[in-house]
Design brief:
Elements (H helix, E strand, L loop, with lengths): L1 H16 L6 E4 L4 H4 L7 E4 L9 H12 L5 E4 L8 H5 L4 E5 L10 E3 L9 H7 L21 H11 L8 E5 L12 H13 L3 E4 L6 H10 L5 E2 L6 H8 L4 E5 L2 H8 L4 E4 L15 E4 L19 H4 L3 H10 L3
Parallel strand pairs: 1-2, 3-4, 4-5, 6-7, 6-9, 7-8, 9-10, 10-11
Helix pairs in contact: 1-5, 1-10, 6-9, 7-8, 7-12
Length: 326
């Protein structure tokens, strides 16, 4: 989800360079609600293959289907060899992407990545909007998702929620990658209690996979949070997140959604690197202790202590939220 949100920066640069261009995005069906909230996207095309699925015959059929769309250019964000097959079978005249897994021939506008010059994922995306001989730093406009009031109200009604006059703190305590990305549930629970005592509403966001961690946070907050984990679809989660007055999230897809909705956001980083995939918003503040062993990029703490997250206090997070300009 985070990559899909960051891809909007590429779409923005493409539109800046060619205002009349039409941008279709081939992506997994689950991402359609994100793409539908990007005004730069002309059409979302559902990818008929699962992540990592090779399925050579199906990729060839997809290529033949794309051939009939008469695309002028294909820009490939994945670096895998198999992702370049369908655009090649489609005969799209210009096929742009990073060389990745030795994709000579499949790509005819390939680039060799200099990770030191382009350390951020979003820079690597937006660089592909420029000609191959462009050597300047690419623009990286921040993603901006657009939500509609009617959809927000429908989500509120469906889930029996009311925004009212109380401010809303959105907490995103999950992280699909693993525990080494998750600020401890007891910390989220204490943070929720502190805001509840100040007459805020606290909404817990997450997928069905985050139900256990959200339930633990809610239990620590004496059951006074609105636990939305597993109760919303992605479209509803995005629309409801737009109502939050403040968000605290681990490094996750929902973190990037909150940033793209221009919410006041504190992003908690543990095992991952905030310099690689930071939230792209002026209203976002990253908190990272920078302990000697981080970033380790592990799913679970290899040293068993998780100091990069356990030593981060609730007071530090609250102060970071207070430091963000309205």
């Amino acid at each position: 989800m985070g990559d899909m949100v960051m891809a909007q920066s590429l779409f923005k640069v493409l539109r800046q360079r060619e205002p009349e261009c039409l941008i279709d995005v081939l992506a997994p069906a689950w991402s359609r609600p994100i793409l539908e909230r990007m005004p730069e996207v002309s059409r979302a095309v559902d990818m008929p293959l699962d992540h990592g699925e090779f399925a050579l015959g199906r990729r060839k059929r997809l290529g033949h289907l794309l051939r009939g769309m008469n695309y002028a250019q294909a820009i490939l964000l994945p670096n895998s060899w198999k992702s370049a097959l369908s655009p090649w079978w489609a005969g799209i005249p210009v096929r742009t992407g990073w060389l990745g897994e030795m994709r000579y021939g499949l790509l005819n506008d390939w680039r060799k990545l200099d990770k030191h010059r382009l350390p951020m994922t979003v820079q690597r995306f937006t660089s592909l909007a420029y000609p191959k001989d462009h050597h300047g730093m690419p623009e990286t406009p921040a993603p901006k998702l657009e939500v509609k009031v009617v959809n927000i109200q429908a989500a509120l009604t469906s889930l029996g929620l009311e925004k009212g006059r109380q401010r809303v703190l959105a907490l995103c305590p999950g992280a699909e990658y693993g525990p080494a990305k998750r600020w401890p549930t007891e910390c989220y629970g204490e943070l929720a209690r502190r805001y509840l005592e100040s007459q805020w509403n606290v909404w817990l966001f997450g997928s069905g996979k985050d139900r256990q961690v959200c339930s633990q946070v809610n239990a620590a907050a004496e059951g006074r949070c609105h636990d939305l984990s597993g109760r919303t679809n992605l479209a509803q989660a995005v629309d409801l997140m737009a109502l939050a007055d403040a968000v605290v999230s681990n490094d996750s897809g929902l973190m990037h959604v909150a940033a793209a909705l221009d919410r006041k956001l504190v992003a908690v980083y543990g095992s991952s690197d905030p310099g690689f995939t930071p939230p792209l918003s002026e209203k976002a503040k990253v908190v990272s202790l920078g302990v000697a062993c981080s970033p380790c990029f592990s799913r679970e703490c290899p040293k068993g202590h998780l100091d990069c997250l356990r030593q981060l206090t609730v007071d530090q997070v609250i102060q970071s939220l207070a430091d963000i300009s309205p």
